[in-house]
Design brief:
The protein contains 8 helices and 4 strands, in the order βαβαββαααααα. With 211 residues, it is of the alpha+beta class. β1, α1 and β2 form a beta-alpha-beta unit. It binds glutathione. Glutathione binds next to α4.
């Protein structure tokens, strides 16, 4: 049994989606981020950064969405949501997981939480630089998907797709949403057809960007 601390549509979305794809038993604990629940001392003991997601596995709490996806794939190899070590797709799997987490995750964080850098409104040039980093990431992934696909590893769905669709969703109100790239648009349409996506939307009570 897993316990996922989550907030609708946030960085916990990919982990929630993974639990639904895997079909494993889990309990959900919703955090009111606007109300500051992430800063409560008892939650900070689980997640010292005061962020979601946190996943409790066998009584121990872990954080970082990409790491949680890697962990879940490892614990449930029968679901085949990750190529096994030594497999031909394993290097690409590791590459895209790291790329999403390190090249897209940080600029997204700064886009939505500019005060991580400094208090007050960020300057237009800083905002522009952050946006550009996100768009550069999508260009690279779109080029890759355009040459293969429909998923990041080709014909097989994997955990990296769950992280990618979460980040794509976050761009929906940005100047250039990720769906503006053609191969990404096809990828999003495919992912949003999945029963896990529809189930997640119902549970998290999401409405925007359903399909
Ligand atoms: N790198 C982290 C980012 C987590 C993160 O930034 N979570 C946001 C929600 S999307 C959060 O908890 N925000 C509340 C806050 O920072 O106060 C991950 O991928 O798990």
């Amino acid at each position: 049994m897993y316990t996922l601390y989550y907030s609708p549509g946030s960085a916990s979305l990919a982990v929630h989606l993974a639990l639904l794809e895997l079909g494993v038993a889990h309990r959900l604990e919703k955090l009111d981020l606007a109300g500051g629940a992430q800063h409560a001392p008892e939650y900070r003991r689980l997640n010292p950064r005061g962020q979601v997601p946190t996943l409790v596995v066998d009584g121990k709490a872990y954080f970082e969405s990409a790491a949680l996806l890697l962990l879940l794939a490892e614990r449930h190899p029968e679901a085949r949501l990750a190529p096994l070590p030594g497999g031909s797709q394993r290097p690409a799997y590791l590459q895209w997981m790291a790329f999403l987490a390190s090249s897209l995750g940080p600029p997204y964080r700064l886009w939505f939480y500019p005060n991580d850098l400094e208090p007050g409104e960020p300057s237009a040039s800083v905002r522009d630089g952050i946006r550009q980093k996100i768009e550069d990431g999508w260009t690279i992934i779109d080029t890759h998907l355009g040459a293969g696909g429909p998923y990041l590893l080709g014909t097989e769905l994997s955990m990296v797709d769950l992280l990618a669709i979460m980040y794509m969703r976050w761009s929906r109100n940005m100047p250039k949403p990720a769906t503006a790239w053609p191969a990404l648009q096809r990828f999003a349409a495919l992912m949003r057809e999945r029963p896990s996506w529809k189930k997640l939307y119902a549970i998290e009570e999401l409405t925007e960007w359903a399909k």
